Amino acid sequence: MESxxxxxxxxxxxxxxxxxxPSSPPLPSTGQPSDRLPPKPLPPSASIxxxxxxxxxxxxxxxxxxxxQVKDKPVPTSAIAVPPKKTAVFNRxxxxxxxxxxxxxxxxxxxxxxxxxITPVVTSSPTPTSTPDFLKPLKLIFASxxxxxxxxxxxxxxxxxxxxxxxxxxxGESSKNLFLTPENETGExxxxxxxxxxxxxxQNQSLLDNVxxxxxxxxxxxxxxxxxxxxxxxxxxxxxxxxxxxxxxxxAVVARIAMSEWEQTLSDDLAELFQIxxxxxxxIFENNKYRDVDIRFMNFPYPDRSIDYALVSSxxxxxxxxxxxxxxxxxxxxxxxxxx
Length: 340
What we know:
By secondary structure, the chain is of the alpha+beta class. The chain has a domain at 136-338. It has nine helices and eight strands. It has helices spanning 2-9, 67-72, 89-114, 136-141, 160-167, 192-199, 205-208, 252-269, 327-338, and strands spanning 145-149, 177-183, 211-223, 240-249, 286-290, 293-299, 306-313, 319-324. It has an eight-stranded mixed sheet with strand order 1-2-3-4-8-7-6-5, with helices on both faces. A hairpin with a 5-residue loop joins strand 7 and strand 8.
């Protein structure tokens, strides 16, 4: 080798040394001779027609394996399943729990230490109370009822405003009597004592002490009975209206005595309200009876314009004083109070 290096340095070609590699004996064969013989092809069955056979794909010529080759065939290894990595659920729920605890603790601290103690103010609203209707018993007796405003301008010296209002009241076709609740211009009911003191010259105090003052009203009635100047009935007269006073009393005996005393000035006291324009032919009140009810009357001069009063025990077990302005009207009101 050194001579070759020197030769290369002098520019001469190197001389190689021939190395002889001894041949190794052949390795023994690890395979075993196969004792299995290849299968012999079988002749076609006589029952199968070769001509009628369908075309089929030809299987490739697969060489059978020896038992040793089958034995040495490597078995495929199955891959080991690795479970997926779990998320940090614990950490998430822990964080939520911490947040909730902080909120609860902060709320409790504010409620017990920082919150101002505000005492709720209890406000009570007034319980609505319905105004009792003192005239309900009378309204239930009469089939028709209404209200009428008594003008403030009306007085004993000037009854025209009141008479004008009463003359404008309209009765229904089938109504014989209409009960009216007298009211002032503020809508408050007018009592019997205030009405009498305002529109009548004289008042009987004994009578005023024996009435239910708030159970007072007016009655407008249809008047069909009319008489001429000679006292003869007019058959084809136009219907008119008449006005009556009605009030509940507490003691019939005392009221009867009080009315008997009031007869001395009653015609003058009611002349404006009942629109009495003619003189009476009677000197005193006289007696009459209708449906066993005692009636005291005075005509001016005939029964179609009169003062008729009576004490009537009604169907609702109350007693009423009725002061009417005609015979027909007092009869009609008695019928209504008795339930006819």
